[in-house]
Structure formats: structure tokens, C-alpha cells
Design a protein that fits this description.
This protein has helices at about 30-50, 70-85, 105-120, 135-145, 170-175, and strands at about 1-5, 55-60, 60-65, 90-95, 100, 105, 125-130, 135, 150-155, 165. With about 190 residues, it is α/β, with parallel strands linked by helices. The chain starts with a strand and ends in a 15-residue tail after the last helix. Residues about 160-175, about 175-185 and about 185-190 have low confidence and may be disordered.
């Protein structure tokens, strides 16, 4: 069984907590993070109490096809596509561009989940992500560089933790040196 959680279980991260690994204390700071921490602990308890063959993964930020506009990468992509189609003025609304996150393409994340079920150790937790911090600005720049229309961006107020990135150490033990096999996550020009 695979219990899919979230990096939100770590909550507010201090500089001394970086990079985040599986031993980083759970300090969720919102209801979603609390629910994912409870799920993670419940899966661990079922392993300890009943020997349930469960592997826990704590996924960091994902992006890719079909993602909701509630997330920066997909919100930027949709706005740029609408600009390209002439459906909106050439202005991309953005939040905190200096925030850093650990982004992984959703297709790489699915592969990592599969590998966790095949090679992960029951009862263990594995952080899954690229292991590379990327600024929100770099995501916007990547997308803007590929547009045919020219647009500018305008900041709007947003609250965002400055940096959230996992350690690549534990994941490499299972998934190999490319972490989640994140070929799509590299955000390299095509």
C-alpha cells in the first residue's frame, strides 16, 4: 500500500531545518498539513501495530498537465496561453516570485510513487521531489521565454513561505541518482 502525503506536514521551515529530510520534525501550520501529518502517522501506526505493508511518501510541489490554477506554474501557463490566444491583455498576474520550491513534473512523481511501491521499505517514509530549489521567478521566466506574444507581469499581494525544498539523500537510495527520475522536472529549454 502507498500512503501519499505532502511536504506540508513539515510546516514552517527554519534555515537550520534545510535541507528537509525524513527526520525533519513534523510541524504543520495549516489544516491541510495537519490532515496529511495525521494520515502519515496513521499509516506508520498501522505498520507498527498490524504489520500493514505500507510505504509513506511525502510529495513536494508537482506541476504538469491538468493542474489547477491554484498553483503558480499552471496559473502562469494558463494566463500566457490566454494572452497568446488574444483572450486577455498581455499582463501576467503573479504573487511572490522570490519564493523557492522543490518542483517535480507530475509524470516523474507518478514514476516515483511506482518505484516506492516496488523498492521502498514497508513502514518507511520517503520525501519525493527533485531536491533542487527553484524560485517562482524561474518558473515564470521559463514560460515567458517560450511565448510568441510579448507580455509583462504585475505583482499582486501573496503570502508564501520563502523556501521549501527536500533533501535528495534518502530518495537517491531507492530511486537512483536522478532522484525521482525527473527528466521533465529539469525545466531545460526544449
Amino acid at each position: 500500500m502507498l500512503a501519499v502525503g505532502s511536504n506540508e506536514i513539515y510546516g514552517k521551515i527554519q534555515a537550520e531545518d534545510l535541507p528537509i529530510d525524513e527526520e525533519t520534525p513534523l510541524r504543520p501550520h495549516n489544516p491541510y498539513g495537519v490532515s496529511k501529518a495525521a494520515q502519515d502517522l496513521m499509516a506508520q501506526q498501522y505498520f507498527l501495530s498490524y504489520g500493514l505493508d505500507v510505504v509513506r511518501v511525502r510529495a513536494f510541489n508537482q506541476f504538469g498537465p491538468g493542474q489547477s490554477d491554484d498553483f503558480s506554474a499552471s496559473a502562469f501557463a494558463r494566463q500566457i496561453a490566454e494572452i497568446e490566444a488574444g483572450q486577455r491583455p498581455p499582463l501576467v498576474r503573479v504573487g511572490n516570485l522570490s519564493a523557492q520550491r522543490d518542483f517535480t513534473d507530475v509524470r516523474d512523481m507518478v514514476r516515483a510513487y511506482w518505484l516506492a511501491t516496488q523498492q521502498g521499505q514497508a513502514g518507511e517514509a520517503y520525501n519525493v521531489g527533485s531536491g533542487q530549489p527553484r524560485s517562482i521567478q524561474s518558473i515564470l521566466d521559463f514560460l515567458l521565454a517560450r511565448q510568441t506574444a510579448r507580455s509583462r507581469w504585475k505583482p499582486i499581494p501573496a503570502a508564501c513561505a520563502p523556501r521549501m525544498c527536500r533533501s535528495a539523500i534518502a530518495t537517491r537510495a531507492i530511486f537512483g541518482p536522478s532522484a525521482a527520475g525527473n527528466q521533465r522536472s529539469a525545466l531545460k529549454p526544449a
